[in-house]
Amino acid sequence: MPRLLPLLLMLMAPVLPAAAQPQESSRFFPYTLKTTKLPNGLTVVRVPFNSPGIVAYITSVRVGSRNEVEAGRTGFAHFFEHMMFKGTKSNPEGQRERILGGYGFDDNAFTTDDITVYQAYGPTAGLPQLIALEADRFQNLEYSEPSFQTEALAVLGEYHKSAAAPDLKIEESLAKTAFTRHTYQHTTLGFYDDIKAMPKAYAYSRTFFERWYTPANITLFIVGDFDDAQVLEAVTKHYGNWKRELATVAIPAEPAQTKARSVHVDWAQPTQPRHVLAWHTPAARADTPDTAIQSLLAEYLVGDTSPAYKELVLEKQLVESLYVSTAPHRDPYLFPIDATLQDEKHRAAVDATLRRDVKALVDGKVDAARVKAIQDHLRYGLLMGMDTPRDVAIDLAFYSGVMGPPDALASYLKQLGTVTPKQLTAFAKKYLVDSNLTVLTLTPKPAAGGTP
């Protein structure tokens, strides 16, 4: 994601008056958003971009593993990322790909804990056909039970491939320990036993699709070179009669953690030891600075300019890498410092150093100059990464999908520049405390008679 572009101050009104929603302008985001909500709830965001003849068409669905609430039915959000390419009665499997391939579109998708994003990127000349094809598959997806079962086995194969490296096991073990009720306790892939049983869940799969793939749960982001009136007319024509209603499903709330937790993983294959300190932190919202604070804290505590990085990675070389995943989440999630150790014997020293620097922050010892440098780096890096319509569309879709408003990315950029050192300390005092901490350790365990 990570060239500062001219910052525009004005958001243009939508061309069609029906259901048009004007948005407040923001000098923190360099592109104009035109947003319209159709009567059926579908939100359509158009962003003019100087990319002659090229357009990005992104469909953001607010469904991820977070939404998998029934016991035994995890993994279906990711599964539908696969199934959405199976075709419809009007466009059987393969036909959509042949049409888009003829124009040269790049077509892909990804699933997270909170959202599923479908992306098509290519020539504006093919946009009318693309709109019709996308509207068709989101309303009229068809697949047989044998096709469903075949794809379920492919998903199982994907799980096995991922499980060959320690990262999936770390993610699973940490989530299962840190969360006792919330659906974040399983990964995007789902619980292994549920994935194995998935071929028998054809009927449920249709329920899941109809529950979440609804117009009110979807936002279109169209970025690039196009005629706005023509695009909005085409979208209204092809999506406007879609009437499926969004289901109301309660996501279990996670109780507050009251004492420290820990989990250990023995890894049977040669690998480097891992040490993770993970604290529960608030949900991402467009109207609070919590997400920006966590992004700043990650760089402040373990980024390339941090004392911990200089000491543990560069000087003493106790650690190969330090990393914090700060991807925003719809519900309260985790702030995990992940250290890849050079040797098991360094674990205690690494743990002590990381806790020392967190405590210093809690005690109010903050380097304000370094905070300002990190803010500039993060904001300008994000803006400089928006080189193509696809970059802009995916960033917009991701932050909107998690936080809600179509212009959530602008809110995040603004907050990145306005967080104060005092806010970092207050956040650390509230959340980066031992009673809110889960520690994960992973050690390579040699097989009998062998060495890791």
What does this entry show, briefly?
The chain is α+β, with helices and mostly antiparallel strands and 452 residues long.
Biggest sheet features: 6 strands, mixed
What is the fold-level CATH name, i.e. the topology of the largest domain? Cytochrome Bc1 Complex, Chain A, domain 1
Written as H for each helix and E for each strand, in order along the chain, the element string is EEEHHEEHHHHHEHEEHHEEHHHHHE
Q: Assembly type of the shown chains?
A: single chain
Instruction: Tell me the span between the first and last alpha carbons.
Output: 37 Å
Helix content: 40-55%
Radius of gyration: 23 Å
Count of discrete alpha- or pi-helical segments spanning 4 or more residues = 15
Total number of distinct structural domains: 2
Going across the biggest sheet, name each strand in turn: 1-2-6-3-5-4
**Mean pLDDT, nearest integer?**
92
Name the shape in a single word: globular
CATH architecture of the largest domain: 2-Layer Sandwich
Q: Low-confidence runs (pLDDT<50, min 5 residues)?
A: 1-26
Amount of beta strand:
15-25%
Strand-pairing-aware structural class: alpha+beta
Q: Please provide the count of β strands.
A: 11
Q: Superfamily at the CATH H level of the largest domain?
A: Metalloenzyme, LuxS/M16 peptidase-like
CATH class of the largest domain, named Alpha Beta
Domain Peptidase M16 C-terminal: 206-376
Organism: Corallococcus terminator
Signal peptide: 1-20
Protein name: Insulinase family protein
